[in-house]
């Protein structure tokens, strides 16, 4: 067999078996909060109070603020690029095309609706710009801009990737900001996780068969909480991480319950692939093994904040984007951008772990058995 035969064989394989990233998805639809927001909160103008829409946000990749709460791209952007798709535009963007995807995430989003917080006396501490179920309503309203008929929609959604979250971080933040006892906050976990489960099932009913469902981050490692809950008893903190153990336990319980919910849904919807995406483990890795990921080994510390103000570089009166807040010289060697959110570098590592492993179960680009 000559060289021409092998060239022809290679061409046939390339046509019939293209790389997974090139063949996998027709569109990407994303839901979530500030970890995924691509500009929905700013689509109709920048609110005067919104520091996250001012420099130095967006400085690394876009060169200007975009409404993303980072110095550059967020995980969903990296995933879209790796799949050969455009970064999904914010769903509230004007004159955008949504045929290849849309990003419904919005800063401040929660899993449960505002009525839940009001019923628990937390209406004054939650800022809810659009819960998961509000975003699903936006999705329904946008469908005429995405596809031309119910059949066309179902066909597109069957060939699309849906990222549902992260949800939960703001739900718990509302309770923690009110200094509610952690025992009480733990009672909210089933409601928050069940709400996510209902959202997943709504998308499955629309035709979605490939869904990524992220858990929450280890909140006890973030400079925001480390600054608010100032160091008192040494036993409150992990001896290796310096993170607040009780807050990380809350995050772990949420993620364990979410994984159980995903297992239930997999059994109920056998033709659907639901992937659990892990934020918790990579952030702990960034703290424990910083050098492995290209980060500085240091106490959890914001890149962008008030230099010289506290060991975590975070102060509520001098936040990133506020007067007195400044970015570090090299955001690529930090995992925490502003004390609450991640840097572009951290998002990139996490996105790769979701796509190829080990930070997803199963990885997005793992071939079906």
From TrEMBL:
Keywords: Glycoprotein, Hydrolase, Signal
One example GO MF annotation: hydrolase activity, acting on ester bonds
Keyword Calcium assigned: no
Domain of life from the UniProt record: Eukaryota
Signal peptide: 1-22
PANTHER family tied to this protein: SGNH HYDROLASE-TYPE ESTERASE DOMAIN-CONTAINING PROTEIN, ZINC FINGER FYVE DOMAIN CONTAINING PROTEIN
Family of this protein: Belongs to the 'GDSL' lipolytic enzyme family.
Name of the protein in question: GDSL esterase/lipase
Source species of the chain: Brachypodium distachyon (Purple false brome)
Top-level taxonomy: Eukaryota, Viridiplantae, Streptophyta, Embryophyta, Tracheophyta
């Amino acid at each position: 067999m000559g060289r021409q035969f092998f060239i022809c064989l290679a061409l046939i394989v390339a046509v019939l078996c293209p790389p997974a990233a090139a063949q996998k998805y027709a569109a990407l639809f994303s839901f979530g909060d500030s970890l995924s927001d691509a500009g929905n909160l700013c689509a109709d103008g920048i609110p005067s109070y919104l520091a996250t829409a001012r420099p130095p946000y967006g400085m690394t990749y876009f060169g200007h603020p975009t409404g993303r709460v980072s110095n550059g791209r967020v995980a969903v952007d990296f995933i879209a690029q790796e799949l050969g798709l455009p970064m999904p535009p914010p769903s509230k963007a004007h004159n955008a095309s949504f045929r290849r995807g849309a990003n419904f995430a919005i800063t401040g989003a929660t899993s449960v609706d505002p009525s839940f917080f009001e019923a628990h006396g937390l209406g004054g501490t939650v800022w809810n710009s659009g819960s998961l179920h509000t975003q699903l309503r936006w999705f329904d309203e946008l469908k005429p801009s995405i596809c031309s008929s119910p059949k066309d929609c179902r066909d597109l959604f069957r060939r699309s990737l849906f990222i549902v979250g992260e949800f939960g971080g703001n739900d718990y933040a509302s309770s923690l900001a009110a200094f509610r006892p952690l025992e009480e906050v733990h009672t909210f976990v089933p409601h928050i996780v069940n709400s996510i489960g209902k959202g997943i099932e709504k998308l499955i009913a629309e035709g979605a068969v490939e869904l990524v469902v992220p858990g929450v981050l280890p909140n006890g490692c973030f400079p925001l909480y480390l600054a608010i809950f100032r160091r008192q008893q040494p036993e409150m903190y992990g001896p290796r991480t310096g993170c607040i153990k009780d807050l990380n336990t809350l995050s772990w319980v949420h993620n364990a319950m979410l994984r159980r919910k995903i297992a239930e849904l997999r059994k109920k919807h056998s033709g659907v692939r639901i992937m659990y995406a892990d934020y918790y483990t990579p952030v702990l890795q960034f703290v424990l093994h910083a050098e492995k990921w290209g980060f500085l080994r240091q106490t959890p510390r914001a890149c962008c904040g008030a230099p010289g103000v506290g060991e975590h570089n975070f102060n509520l009166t001098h936040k990133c984007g506020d007067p007195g807040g400044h970015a570090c010289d090299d955001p690529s060697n930090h995992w925490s951008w502003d004390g609450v959110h991640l840097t572009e570098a951290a998002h990139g590592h996490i996105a790769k772990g979701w796509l190829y492993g080990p930070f997803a179960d199963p990885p997005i680009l793992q071939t079906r058995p």
